[in-house]
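Proteins fold reproducibly. Look at a concrete instance:
___
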Amino acid sequence: MTAEVAILNRRAVALAADSAITISYWEGGERKTRYFKGTNKIFNISNKFPVGLMIYHAGSIEGMPWEIIANAYRDRRGNDPQERLADYAKHFFDFIESDNHLFPQDFKESQFVSKMVGVVLRICSVLDRDLQEAKREVHSKKRLDLLRNGLENLRRAIEQDTYLKCPECEYIEKEAQLYRNRVLKEIEKYELFDVIKDVLDFGEVYNVAASALMKEDWTTLQTTGLVFAGYGENDYFPRIHHRMCYGILLGRLIVTPVDDEASDVSHDNVSEIIPIAKSDMMDTFICGASTDALVEIDGFFENCIEGLVDAMKKSGTIAGGVDYSSEKNAACIDFREKVSEYLAREHTKPLRNVIGMLSVGELAEIAETLVSIESLKERVTRPTESVSGPIDVAVISKSDGFIWIKRKHYFDPGLNSRLFAHHGIPGTKA
């Protein structure tokens, strides 16, 4: 988990991010999670133009840190002007796909085999749980039936699931058949494969796995959120372009859009506050209540209505057979609308109006504060501290470009001032 925010008004966009990163991966059919601190999540991807990148979730793609990719793009392609911010994102993704030095062909193929091994093992793990009742009796008919029924249930569930929102999904699923023998050779090394080895046809299991790899609820692909911020040549107000990356499969970069309710700053919209990833405290600050709190309040209201009707039925005030479901639903909808209108009127709208008038420096201060209160809440309420560490802050304006306000260093800036002119990062003069 992580905590980040982008705050936009007509002058600039401010980005702030904590330094913790959570890495989830599949190993032997099991999902594992590790937490790290000191990660860089905000990058300047052009020394000439006002555009930046902020990441969350995985800090690397196919083992390559995003920081290295961002720096390579800045050095090789960052001085190529683009008309719109979205064009910078496409340009960035094209660079990753086309640069064979980042990911050589043989590496891409071995990584794909590894991903397919991971998703096959996940399916084996699910089937293994189905065998607990049969106590894994190797030659029993009950075991065979359980495995066949379990695989069929998985196949139906995966078939009904939604593909990732990218055009390459069906291509990847089809091309995966070319790697079946290589995956079988690798997966035979795992003890978990014994669950199905002499009972089910591996081809059937592999087909299910190839489909699962590209489905939203079943994929084992490591994900990174990418938030591009700033201006294209024809953008006069700052913009945000939000995408989710699932890695490179068979030479294709798997990137999907992220659905959010944020709007661009425009002549009619003075500001935007966009929390990213962990945002309970930010939501409370912006809206007056977090999403979780609003869901709980809505549930309490519905329960109170049901309790009131039950009490009235017991007292004889209303007949026992009366169907009040339509009235209850109407009351719940009206309650939600009234609460939303109140919070928007008393909290969100006044705050956004003030944000629209802030100077660039004040935007940065607000952005840092929002991440700081999210980090504080996480530190005092959860043992993982998945939101923590120093907070990096940058602002991007049309006139001044990408400017660091705060950035952590793993070294003493006073001893390494020669680096700053080359890398464009803040430090002390020699």
Observations:
- The chain has three domains: 3-103+221-279+354-423, 109-212, 300-340.
- The chain has a mean pLDDT of 87.
- The longest helix spans residues 325-357.
- The longest strand covers residues 239-249.
